[in-house]
């Protein structure tokens, strides 16, 4: 009994080993490897799809100018226009892609953003890229915000970016309130002229009052000097006056004699 129990115990202990050896090796990748592979494939497919929605959608090279973009846009729009392909959903979807691609590539600012985004995505998806040192420029991924309907005609144009302000207040006021603005300007000029006139008039009045004060002082001084001379003549010494009068009399008498002799 002990021998039988020992054999049964040994068989049960060796059973997992026989089960593992009997299994065939599988070629499936580990779960984390499959996940990495699928993520990489999806990223690459997204990049390719994003590029097709722009340059490959219009069938132009990345170096194409606006003239080539416009010509290709007209050509493809006329081909896939919903009016020429009624009931064709693929043509309508293609027409939307063509309009979206042209509206993106025809704008210089959005085209630069799109090209930089594609370069960054390509560098991230490529297995041969190396880590670069130095400062990196953050690029915002491109996102199309324009939803173009199939009913839109091919002459649809997106508003171009401009440095000019959207609302010109001066022009609006001149167009709608020009006369009122001119009237206010005329009133302001008249008020300014009136202020300057009264200011000059006040200065002239102050100058006139000063001149009158100076003239009064000069007249009072002359009058005072004249009065001083008269008073001095009145109160002269009588003896001195008599001598002067006698001297004047003698001189006049001598002059009369000389005339008689002649």
TrEMBL record:
<dbReference type="InterPro" id="IPR018253">
    <property type="entry name" value="DnaJ_domain_CS"/>
</dbReference>
<keyword id="KW-0732">Signal</keyword>
<keyword id="KW-0472">Membrane</keyword>
<dbReference type="InterPro" id="IPR053025">
    <property type="entry name" value="Mito_ATP_Synthase-Asso"/>
</dbReference>
<keyword id="KW-0812">Transmembrane</keyword>
<keyword id="KW-1133">Transmembrane helix</keyword>
<dbReference type="Pfam" id="PF00226">
    <property type="entry name" value="DnaJ"/>
</dbReference>
<dbReference type="InterPro" id="IPR036869">
    <property type="entry name" value="J_dom_sf"/>
</dbReference>
<dbReference type="InterPro" id="IPR001623">
    <property type="entry name" value="DnaJ_domain"/>
</dbReference>
<protein>
    <recommendedName>
        <fullName>J domain-containing protein</fullName>
    </recommendedName>
</protein>
<feature type="domain" description="J">
    <location>
        <begin position="53"/>
        <end position="118"/>
    </location>
</feature>
<feature type="transmembrane region" description="Helical">
    <location>
        <begin position="211"/>
        <end position="236"/>
    </location>
</feature>
<feature type="signal peptide">
    <location>
        <begin position="1"/>
        <end position="22"/>
    </location>
</feature>
